[in-house]
Design brief:
This protein has 19 helices and four strands. By secondary structure, it is mainly alpha-helical. The C terminus is likely disordered.
């Protein structure tokens, strides 16, 4: 006989498996999501989280068997056309099922136990939310394009030209001459969800639920970025120049006297700030303290994402610059273990917010100022990147210091003596720190 708790667990497990099966067998979901490269990578993030949080041959075998079952049902039973990206989606759906089952059946932490229910809940739920966020992204971008038929591309392009180097066209030429290099950069660009999952899972295994602010920052980056897309809607040089990209940019004299106006350009309004850049910056900054191989992967994604965003013509250089304060803002906003009154968090949030907004205003209204001298735009670029990195370092240091204190004194508190003032804290009216009652 099953007791009530086990009955609930069985029901939750069956419901989870039914949802996974229904998604896999849906022709609409298969054609719109499972074969999409970005969605497939988002789903595959669940595999990374599962195998990092609990590396086990059993988990790997369960994912493999689940993938084969789902693929067999789709291809042999329903006759869906086989696609490479669908294989990653099958693995991701299977990993979500395993993570969910682990969260349901793993008991709370007991002595001599390495894993508990909380750990798997903090692994499973963010993985689901990240997939849902990716699923909603295209719809939000469609709304943004419908709301803003004209874009500020010429303003962003003018700023890039004022630097004296048109990085998008420069990297685009390299990509055109070395297609293997372009392919490698695009692989990193598309596989972005994997390092997000890797860094979060590594922190989750080391710090348990204290790692959640990292995933919260990853999740918040998308919706907050869409808000900024509506402030200065833009697409990218490839959408403006078409076949002239990357071989025929405007010369400096033409760019200097370019008539700045909003123009009707087809394409997603997702240029500034570059969310891909913001995400890989968060991956790199939050990889501190992790294994060297994870740090190496994070840095590789930073380098190739910079190249891919520019070389494909989907972003201007200024988009990447604005990603720095934007990422600082998001990290500070989501770092709830520190109060907003805490100096490093408050400073990082205020700088990130106002610097991001200032950049949006400058590229919209002050572009002629940048043409006075290349020193002006370059000084702003260097200052923005260096201050952002410095404030992020201070923010993380403050977080680690507080977390270390909690680990050192996890069950200790200050007691105020009866009748004492708010500033008189002690355990026995002598000013000592006392252990809390159990």
């Amino acid at each position: 006989m099953l007791n009530r708790a086990n009955t609930v667990r069985v029901a939750l497990t069956l419901a989870l498996f039914a949802i996974v099966l229904a998604l896999s067998l849906s022709a609409d979901f298969y054609s719109s999501s499972m074969v999409d490269a970005f969605m497939a990578m988002a789903l595959s993030g669940a595999v990374v989280i599962l195998l990092v949080v609990q590396p086990s041959w059993i988990n790997l075998a369960a994912v493999a068997v689940g993938s084969l079952i789902l693929a067999g049902l789709d291809y042999r039973l329903l006759g869906f056309p086989p696609k490479l990206m669908a294989a990653f989606s099958f693995a991701g759906l299977s990993a979500l099922a395993v993570l969910g089952a682990r969260a349901v059946w793993t008991p709370k932490l007991q002595p001599h136990q390495n894993y508990d229910r909380t750990l798997f809940l903090y692994a499973f739920l963010p993985a689901v939310l990240f997939v849902a966020s990716e699923y909603m992204a295209s719809m939000l971008l469609d709304y943004t394009e419908a709301l803003h038929p004209k874009t500020f591309d010429l303003y962003l392009y003018s700023f890039d030209c004022s630097l004296g180097v048109q990085f998008s066209f420069l990297v685009g030429r390299v990509f055109s001459q070395h297609l293997w290099f372009r392919f490698a950069a695009l692989v990193f660009y598309i596989a972005l969800p994997l390092p997000l999952a890797l860094v979060y899972a590594a922190h989750l295994r080391l710090r348990s639920k204290a790692a959640f602010p990292i995933m919260l920052a990853f999740l918040a980056t998308g919706p907050l970025g869409v808000l900024f897309y509506n402030m200065v809607p833009a697409t990218g040089p490839v959408h403006v120049f078409g076949q002239n990209f990357p071989w025929h940019p405007l010369v400096t004299s033409q760019a200097r006297h370019l008539l700045l106006e909003t123009i009707a350009v087809p394409g997603a309004r997702n240029a500034i700030p570059s969310l891909h850049m913001a995400w890989v910056l968060l991956v790199w900054w939050n990889s501190k303290g992790l294994a060297r191989w994870i740090r190496a992967i994070a840095m590789a994604f930073v380098v190739f994402t910079v190249l891919a965003t520019l070389g494909t013509g989907e972003h201007y250089f200024v988009d990447l610059v604005v990603a720095f304060p934007f990422a600082v803002m998001v990290q500070a906003l989501c770092l709830y273990p520190l109060t907003l009154k805490h100096g490093p968090r408050r400073l990082a949030f205020l700088f990130g917010t106002f610097a991001s907004l200032l950049w949006m205003a400058l590229v919209s209204f002050a572009t002629p100022v940048f043409w006075i001298s290349p020193i002006i735009p370059w000084a702003l670029v260097v200052a923005t990147i260096s201050i952002s990195a410095s404030l992020m370092h201070r923010l993380q240091k403050a977080e680690w210091t507080q977390e270390k204190r909690k680990q050192t004194f996890p069950e200790w508190r200050l007691e105020r003596p009866a009748g004492g003032s708010e500033g008189e804290w002690s355990g026995n009216a002598t000013g000592k720190i006392c252990q809390s009652d159990r």
